[in-house]
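quick one before i forget lol
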Amino acid sequence: MKYVAFGAAGAASITAATAGIIKVDNPASATMAAAKIYEWAIGPGANSADNNYAVRAKRQSTAGTWTAVTPSPLDAKAGASVTTAGVASTAAGTGGVVLGQWGFHMRGGYRWVAIPGGELVVPLVFSNGIILEYIFAQGTDVLEAELYFDE
């Protein structure tokens, strides 16, 4: 089943505690299939200006503190998502391997789509996840981000 997690990420910050933009992670159940992120997008929200940004996708081995968002089903018969999601981190989790990083201009945003078989796989371990985080911020704009995944 396919889902999307989205929400306003809050103003940009380059401090470690508030760098998280959006995430999906594994709940307590280890009997489910691992979620796979097949697409993500990020772009201007409120207060957009002429600023440059860089984000990176990174594995995370502890949850950290996030504002919970409920993933929305994209398939007609999909039930509630087992995978959990959040936006706007206020306390960083334990970071892991960087999966990629991208620069973009605030007024244009950025969209990444995996080639078939190249999806970002969420580790099938409790509280392990994949996050998008700021690695550089030239401004304080609010960004809107979406993570598309299936489980």
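fyi The longest strand covers residues 95-105.
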